[in-house]
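S1.2 Input.
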Amino acid sequence: MRVLVVEDEQRLAATLRRGLTEIGFAVDLAYDGDEGLAAALGAPYDVLVLDIMLPKLDGLLLTRELRSRRVSTPILMLTARDSVEDRVKGLGAGADDYLVKPFAMRELIARISALARRQLPDRSEVLQAGPILMDTTAHAVRVCDQPVELTAKEFAVLQFFLLHQRQLLTRSQIIQNVWDYDFDGGRGLIEVYVGRLRRKVLEAGGGNPFVTLRGVGYRFDPQ
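S1.3 Output.
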């Protein structure tokens, strides 16, 4: 899942990025409304997390501008204000949810995940392909009913494949949806992660669902 966080408090932005990255999200940061607008228009995101009190272009104006440009990505607003009037203003501008500071990281993660599922109805909490079962809420994977340990990024890559079964996925598509703008590992890193997942699924008895299309990308064909 790829998330854009627009937050001018850089320490808080770094904390949010660290917490979301630890569970496998790809996170980009912007520190003012203008940067946030450019980022949201320039790349695909599953969820946008916007602070209301932003320099240059505040969160309400940013949300209105995005909606006027037909950007339908779910928006979660962050604010220190807890009045009903403030919440109504945020939702009226086009936001989908509202979270008051301070908040627990696990609540932020739960709200982001819920918004992503709402945007994509097929993104249920449990994904299955043949003998592979992924519980996105518990962050757990089982193959042939055996638990398989994955790193956060391996989990994110496998989730992307599970959501796009039997489709051609280019390396660029995988990078764009699973990594953030700071990705600098080259396309060879994709081969490394697919190789790790292929080995772990094979060792658990799940066959090899990762089909390499040389010079093109991959197709995920569950056994």
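S1.4 Remarks. Helices lie at 10-22, 33-42, 59-68, 84-93, 105-119, 152-163, 171-178, 188-203.
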